[in-house]
Amino acid sequence: MLTILLDGIAYGMLLFVLSCGLSVTLGLMNFINLAHGAFAMVGGYVTALLMNRAGVPFLVTLPLAFFVPAALGVVLERTLYRRLYGASPLDQVLFTIGLVLMAMPIANYFLGDQAQQVHLPTWLSGRIEFHGVGIGIYRLFIIGVCGVIAAALQIFLVKTRFGARLRAAVDDPRVASGLGINVDLLFAITFAVGSGLAGLGGALAADVVGGIDPSFPLKFMVTFLIVVTIGGSNGILGALVGSLLLGVLDVAGKYYVPSIGAFIIYLVMVVTLILRPQGLFARTDAR
Amino acid sequence: MTAPARSENPTRLAAHLRRRARWRWPEILFWLAIAVAIFAVPSRAALFNEILIAGLFALSLDLILGLTGVVSLGHAAFFGLGAYTAAILSSEGIADPTLGLVLSSLIAAALGLATAPLLLRGADLTRLMVTMGIALMLGELANRNSWLTGGADGLNIEMAPVLGLFPIGFTGQRNAALYSFVVLFLLFALARRLAQSPFGLSLLAIRENRLRAGALGISTPRRIIAIYALAAGYAGAAGALLAQTTQIVSLDLFDFHRSADVLLMLIIGGAGYLYGGIIGAAIFIVLRDVISGATPEYWEFWIGALLVVLVLVGRERFAERVRRLLDRLKRPAAWEEAA
Questions:
Q1: ipTM higher than the 0.90 cut
Q2: Which residues are CB-neighbours of B327 under 8 A, at least 6 positions away?
Q3: Interface of A with B (CB under 8 A)
Q4: What is the CATH number of domain B24-338?
């Protein structure tokens, strides 16, 4: 019972790191980025390839799994995404689906459709017993890393000057730039951090989901979107609660009532949206 | 001074509506060309059939997206429901295609009617998510209730000949294409009539500005529910056609990519003028056929690139240009009138 809860929390934390970048672009910048999973895939590939082909230790690959997708994110944001900030949701959806459809064959072309496995170092695999509750060490590792990231992000957004500027830029880009805030730069940095976190999430998730393969962006796109829509647009907190809820429900649902499978998370999403169309933690202002 | 204008306006309006409703010769040619193509190239009948069915599916999405401005990422829910209903009906002994078609689209329409109220609240994003969630839920239900749906194996079905005369299926692929063609044409004519009617105009008003449409006295929630149910019925009919003519149904009918593909078709063809879905379906499927013939596995890349370019260039501008071209084709006399 407690094992399931902890597994659920670990899965939820993973979902959080994967999707918090999306919740930032979607919730703060009002941009529907369905291609978010593609950045996660890039991160996963970076870790898997570095470990398998160059023999780089797992922990060393993680920062790279953050920075490579972040750099890619900046390039794409500057060249393509920024043109669509004001566009209709439908245009954004179409554009980013287009990017996903392009990303998958590119990955397939260069890396093949075999799943790239991430082999965990021995000190991270295995389980420990704690008061009769067994839990995988890697699960604990995920909970720890993701918890630190969540806390850091929350402090970053709420306490720092950068966070205040970002919130100002989101609330009213024109006034913010009139006050001397470089809105373009802010959005580019935010987008890069979001993409980088997706990549880190992809790298951490590679072992849990059984390797990274070219269909990753599409397979998990739906999950990310569910997390973000359940959580609502209120930045980090919504995404955290949404991911934890989804993670625990998904793991528990698959364990206790396997006959309905993934049905439960879709049901949770639809019910949430019927009761609260803006998600659990909506921003209070009308924008 | 206002009195004559008042009495004149309704008649002018009526005349305008009648003029809009008339079938133009390019349209007649369009339909004739499809019919001729089916007879002329019987070896590609299966491809034509696929295009016609996808065209009907995209037409149904056009009713809600193009006419009414309601976005959906889960239209496959109704497509899949229609297909499975047709398949289950036939395995339960109701093998008559037309009866199965009608029942399937009615059931899909009922689901549309039941789920439409969920679309009235929230923003576009909420609607995208709710529709997608419903499609995924149905797919999961079909997956889990394998006693009814065959689960991951799908269902193989046998159909009786259409109207007791024309066998469809593997040996009668031309008949199947013709069957789809007739169904598509009839449903298209109905949709066209509807779009020209005051009801259709009120949908356009809702698309342009829902708040203002409400202020004009249009009951927007009811109209949205009505058109959504109708579109669901159309999608159900398309699904039923696919099930009956290919004689197989499988779980991928509910997949996300079905909903995305149909959206792409409609966007490629241009939303809002009813022909867009059919044209887009033809372009999409022919492209897929050609590209995947040359480089299988990678054809998605080109579709994705096409989408990205389409959005960056400006979907609206693109569609506008095509529409202007069509208008010019429709009314060669328009310049002379203006001159």
A1: no
A2: B334
A3: 26, 32, 80, 83-84, 87-91, 93-95, 97-106, 108-109, 113, 218, 221-222, 225-226, 229, 259-263, 266-267, 269-270, 273-274, 277-278
A4: 1.10.3470
Matching residue, tokens 């809702």: B206
Joined together, the tokens standing for residue A162 give: 């950068």
Q: Which residues of chain A have pLDDT under 50?
A: 285-287
Could you say which residues from 54 to 73 on chain B have a Cβ atom under 8 Å away from some Cβ of chain A? 65, 71, 73
**Rounded-to-integer distance, Cα B55 and Cα B274, Å:** 10
CA pair distance B82, B98, nearest whole angstrom = 13
| DSSP codes joined into one string, B150-193 | -GGG-EE---PPBTTTB--SSS-HHHHHHHHHHHHHHHHHHHHH
Q: Do B307 and A218 touch (CB under 8 A)?
A: no
- Count of CB atoms situated within 10 Å of the CB of A120: 17
Domain boundaries, chain A: 2-275
Dist CA A261 CA A3 (whole Å): 19
Question: What CA–CA distance (Å, rounded) separates A209 from A195?
Answer: 19
- The 10s digit of each residue's pLDDT in A185-240 is 888 888 888 889 888 888 888 877 777 888 888 878 878 888 887 877 666 777 88
Beta bridge partners of A116: A212
Q: What are phi and psi of A130, to 5 degrees?
A: -135, 110
- Domain boundary assignment for chain B: 24-338
d(CA B88, CA B104): 10
Q: Which two tokens stand for residue B329?
A: 């084709």
Q: Which of A38, A61, A6, A16 is nearest to A203 (CA)?
A: A61
| Number of other CB atoms surrounding residue A262 within 10 Å | 18
- When scoring A23, A84, A90, A213 by the number of chain B Cβ atoms within 10 A, the one with the most, hence best to mutate, is A90
Paired tokens of A119: 């082999």
Rounded Cα distance, A93 and B73, in Å:
9
Q: Which class would CATH give A2-275? A: mainly alpha
For residue A171, CA distances in Å to A32, A62, A283, A286, B203 come to 17, 33, 11, 10, 33
- HEC string of B188-230 equals HHHHHHHHHCHHHHHHHHHHHCHHHHHHCCCCHHHHHHHHHHH
Q: pTM for the complete prediction?
A: 0.82
Q: Which region holds residue A119: left if phi is over 0, alpha if psi is between -120 and 50, else beta?
A: beta
Q: Return the closest-CA partner of residue A228 out of B53, B208, B107, B126.
A: B126
